[in-house]
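Form 7-S
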Amino acid sequence: MSDSLEGLRRQLGAAGDLKSVVRAMKALAASSLGQYEKAVVSLRDYSRTIELGLNVCLRQSPNAFAGNPLARKPGVGLVVFGSDQGLVGQFNETIADFLQTQVPPSSEIKVWAIGERVSSRMEELGFTDIENFVLPNSIQAIASLIGQVLVSIEAYRETKGSLELHVFHHRPAAGAAYEPIGLRLLPLDKKWAQSIREIKWPTSQIPQSVGDVLFAYEALLREYIFVSLFQACAESLASENASRLAGMQRAEKNIDELSEELTRRFHRLRQSSIDEELFDVVTGFEALSPQKKR
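Output:
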């Protein structure tokens, strides 16, 4: 009986320690989620500003966009954002399964995998040409990561001559949910240019580009590609922390339920032990009492 009580004490202590760890991770996920959500909102505004700048260039110089005629079949590349750490549920599996429905795995496809765990999933799907990158742990580190990815992409384009680039990542949804999305970033075709031209200017005064329109257009294009990848990374990190926060909340609830059950069992065993000891005392007292005279 005493061993059982001691075992329950140890389990209750372990549950308390585990709950402390879960609370710490929950607080960290909530803090990270807040900064990434703010970054996502800011990046959407910044991306819209770049699109408005491209709109001005294309309207002022309709010939600025000549399209991207492909003399040969382009190489295909995928930028996939996942996670480096666990405790995120089916985060990496979901993006991998979604990618598989959009792009059949092939050894000829180049993959830039952002996150160790999603890289493993890409290998399991059958992709072989994979370049791995460490996921940033703060907003300030995203720019450096995207710069490294763009350098690698440009080197690959030099060997292939042209590139069809797709970006896959999770995007935050309502509540703590997220959804996988895919974007074809390159090549920028006439359909993309038409969508930029159709953007309605927010005011009645239409601005004009000062200086060389083509120079401004090319600079805005580079920034457009950069911010598209930056935004994908920020949205993926926000989704990852939302998933981790939801997981920690479920874990905390399960630990509370387990602690309550262990506490009830502990009290029942303790009460049973006390009852047995009292019974032994009463029995011993009766056995030692002098027998009544007949």
